[in-house]
From TrEMBL:
The name this protein goes by in its record: Haloacid dehalogenase-like hydrolase domain-containing 5
One Pfam family linked to the record: Hydrolase_6
SUPFAM superfamilies named among the record's database cross-references: HAD-like
NCBIfam families, sorted: CECR5 (TIGR01456), HAD-SF-IIA (TIGR01460)
InterPro entries: CDP-alcohol_PTase-I, HAD-like_sf, HAD-SF_hydro_IIA, HAD-SF_hydro_IIA_CECR5, HAD_sf
GO biological process: glycerophospholipid biosynthetic process
Source organism superkingdom: Eukaryota
Keyword Secreted: no
PANTHER family registered for this protein in UniProt: CAT EYE SYNDROME CRITICAL REGION PROTEIN 5, CDP-DIACYLGLYCEROL--GLYCEROL-3-PHOSPHATE 3-PHOSPHATIDYLTRANSFERASE-RELATED
Keywords from the named record: Signal
GO cellular component, one term: mitochondrion
């Protein structure tokens, strides 16, 4: 079996480690620091390199976690090589140029670069309004072929305005707004979390909130919905396809030769972690029913034979038989008032979230919000999992 851990709200709250998670890692690793179970960390964060996130997590948890074990929301962009050599606009924050290069993009521009060339496009902040503008620069600015939304930006109004400008001009910022919006340029978005759990006692806006603003403004302006080429990050199925292959590779590196039959996705967000794991499990069960081998061709934008992962292509063969969703009470989700955290609640008494916080393009199925089981924290989750798998952490 393999483990898929969410990070924020499961292992840490902001920069503060959750004590139960640190205790869990003492049990999950050998004295030499090696993991006893194939483990991947699946985060919807998209504004950092996997190496940076791995180092932060290693320091917080007191164990060595490699970048190969960390899956960012943008990691599945490796599965879209058809965009890697096109001129793409990147929106987000953090080291976007380093992230883009690591994924495989070779030709990209940032929001700030567009502001430098077209300063009159960003007019909300009066203090940042331009005084001079170079027409020579605008004439040589390249056509943008696609938009990549990595995560929530710092200045929402700037990114919202410029991304909309690129979409309305079909990537030609020197041109006026186009009359035809049927042929929208491709837009790929990472991290669909409406909310996420930080140090605050209340959830904070995530990139999903920015996407909601973008969708609303675009549709209001052109009279038709914004169309995404791809959505990545939990709860998208593409994310779990990628995570499954990472688990498979890690298991092989650990010397495990038997197939990984069960995945356990441990998270705190019913609308992302639980919904995504259950959606992936639903697809697995559908495949089993029709006796298909591999993923349905329409579900991923690559050939069935190969999945693009770091370093080399990996043959895509479905071995996982189930993906179990595990909800913990250390982040966004908390049991009803009066319920003991030592026994949070049974699935039978679990309160389904009344409002769907998932992405616009994902149909809401209330049954997919129900976890396989609920535990107080990640350490208790591991107790339950190893018991189900008849696996001893003492060996």
């Amino acid at each position: 079996f393999g483990l898929l851990f969410d990070i924020d709200g499961v292992l840490v709250r902001g920069k503060t480690p959750i004590p139960a998670a640190r205790e869990m890692f003492k049990r999950l690793t050998n004295p030499d620091g090696r993991f006893k179970v194939p483990t991947v960390f699946v985060t919807n964060a998209g504004n950092a390199l996997a190496r940076t996130k791995a180092d932060q997590l290693s320091n917080a948890m007191g164990v060595e976690i490699t970048s190969e074990q960390v899956m960012m929301s943008h990691s599945p962009l490796r599965m879209f090589p058809e965009f890697h050599n096109k001129c793409v606009l990147m929106s987000g924050q953090g080291p976007l140029d380093q992230i883009a290069k690591k994924i495989g993009f070779t030709n990209y521009v940032t929001i700030d670069q567009i502001r430098d060339v077209f300063p009159n496009l960003d007019m909300v902040d009066h203090q940042r309004r331009p005084k001079l503008m170079s027409a020579a620069l605008t004439e040589t600015f390249p056509k943008i072929d696609a938009v990549i939304l990595f995560g929530e930006p710092v200045r929402w109004e700037t990114n919202l305005q410029i991304v909309i400008d690129v979409l309305l001009t079909h990537g030609n910022l020197n041109d006026p707004i186009a009359d035809d919006h049927e042929n929208q340029i491709p837009i790929l978005a990472c991290n669909m979390d409406l909310l996420w759990m930080s140090d605050s006692h209340m959830p904070r806006f995530g990139h999903g909130t920015f996407l909601h603003c973008l969708e609303s403004v675009y549709e209001k302006l052109v009279g038709r919905p914004l169309t995404y080429t791809a959505l990545m990050g939990k709860p998208s199925e593409v994310t779990y396809i990628y995570a499954e292959q990472l688990i498979k590779r890690i298991a092989s590196n650990m010397g495990i030769t038997s197939p990984i039959k069960n995945l356990y996705a441990i998270g705190d967000n019913p609308m992302a972690d639980i919904y995504g794991a259950n959606l992936f499990n639903k697809r697995i069960k559908q495949e089993q029913e029709v006796k298909q081998v591999g993923w349905l061709e329409s579900a991923i934008p690559v050939a069935l034979a190969t999945l693009v992962l770091p370093n080399k292509p990996t043959p895509f063969i479905r071995e996982v038989e189930a993906c179990h969703s595990v909800l913990v009470c250390t982040g966004i989700y908390s049991p009803e008032p009066g319920v003991s955290l030592n026994n949070p609640c049974s699935v039978g008494s679990y309160q389904i979230p009344p409002v769907f916080h998932g992405p616009r393009d994902m149909e809401f199925d209330v049954n997919l919000c129900v976890p396989s089981f609920i535990t107080k924290d990640a350490n208790k989750a591991i107790d339950r999992i190893v018991k189900m798998e008849n696996f001893s952490l003492e060996s």
